[in-house]
Amino acid sequence: MTRQRFPFSLRLLPLMILAGASAATSVQAQSLVDLYTAARDFDASYQSAKSQYTATLAKAEQAQAAILPTVGLSAVVSQTNQDLQLPASKNYTYNSQSATIAASQPLYRPANLASYEQGKKQVALAQAQLSQAEQDLVVRVSQAYFDVLASTDTLEFVKSQKAAVAEQLASAKRNFEVGTSTITDSREAQARYDLVVAQQLAAENDLRVKSLALDLLVGTSNAKPKPLKAPVALSNVQPADAERWVNDALTNHPAIKQLEVALDVAVLETAKAQAGHKPTLDLTGSLTTSNTNNGSSSGTVDTRANVATVGLSFNLPLFAGFSTQNRIKETVALEEKARTDLEATKRTVAQGTRTAYFGVESGLGQVKAFEAAEASSQSALDANKLGYQVGVRINIDVLNSQSQLFDTKAKRSAGEFSNKFELV
Q1: Rg over CA atoms, the chain
Q2: Is the pLDDT of residue 183 over 90?
């Protein structure tokens, strides 16, 4: 089932509700929110996304420089030795120093303005990327959390089945000893007991693996999720309208937000390319101070001069070897690609949201059906036990009823955890 990522604030609400529904079985047990908080501080993927978010914000601020003035300072110190041979031999040595401060302010630069707008779009992109990283972390922690709970329940069911089969095995042996049953009953019960022992070993290993995965994700050792409060009550999906969920996903899905920003950036990139045909106009100014010591070739008097200039710098592109035209063609094609990618993602998100919604609805119905099947399986087991005691049922009938009961319990439990996970 495709799991859709909805806004972070919306996803935290069911997490809080679920945390409140958890039973504190021990001091060490942790709620889903506790483990999620630990994962936020430890998970390498999420920390990487946070660093990328900070870097993207800084990069967005850099784009503002394209429309702000630039100022530069330069200085020159030199010594000149001049030897004149005609009409008379003379030698001049003098020092000179100069300093210039120059400034430029763009007045009309369409490409720079487009770059500035692209920089502002990067902020929205960074927020969408971080939101998606948060959504992914919620999903991964929830998956690991419920995997451990489901594996724990599976192990408990296997242990209970083992105890029941052991009791049936002991009964079959007693009946064989007193001659009321055949050796076949004992062997069938022994075979079923050996099978359950193997299932217990597999369940213990599965729980060990799932627990290690949760520990690795949250950065703690021996994390213990709080079990759900019994009986587990699965509420219906609200709102009970798939199209409202679809509309919410189309508005808030991080992947869609990122592609919307990508389309805006592509449109601005086309505007930048088109600006290659347009003129530019800058306001320029400079102030230069120069000193000459010990005279010069024109005299021996020290001089000092200050020169200030203000002007306009105009540039009009005339021909660039068709590079501008081809650049426009490229950006228009990329803009169309960004628009098509956005539309494809919207369709995928809409379909995935409907699939997830109807999957949860179906899961709720399955859990209710398994609850009824569990009650029926319990009744069948009780009837088979009674029939075995009065001699109208054989041992294998009881063993099969026991297997069916615990298999139904496991499926019901798995369905409850699956729907809890889907709802968060």
Answers
A1: 39
A2: no
**For helices 254-274 and 242-252, what crossing angle results, to 10°?**
40
Quote the CA–CA distance of 92 and 295 in Å, as a whole number: 8
Q: Omega into 7 within 30° of 0, i.e. cis?
A: no
Q: What pTM was estimated for this model as a whole?
A: 0.73
Q: Sheet of 280-293: strands edge to edge?
A: 70-84, 90-108, 280-293, 303-315
Q: Show the beta-strand stretches assigned E in 185-256.
A: none
Q: How far is CA 333 from CA 112, 264, 338, 339, in A?
A: 22, 14, 9, 10
Regarding predicted confidence, which is higher, 37 or 8?
37
Residue 49: closest CA among 64, 39, 61, 34: 39
The domain 8-69+109-278+321-423 is placed in CATH, from the list 3.40.50.1460, 3.40.630.30, 1.20.1600.10, 2.40.128.120, at 1.20.1600.10
**How many Å apart are CA 203 and CA 143, to the nearest integer?**
18
In angstroms, the Cα distances linking 213 to 42, 208, 417 are: 14, 9, 17
Mean pLDDT along residues 52-70: 88
State the DSSP code for 301. S
CB of 92 within 8 A of CB of 84?
yes
Nearest CA among 147, 160, 258 for reference residue 212: 147
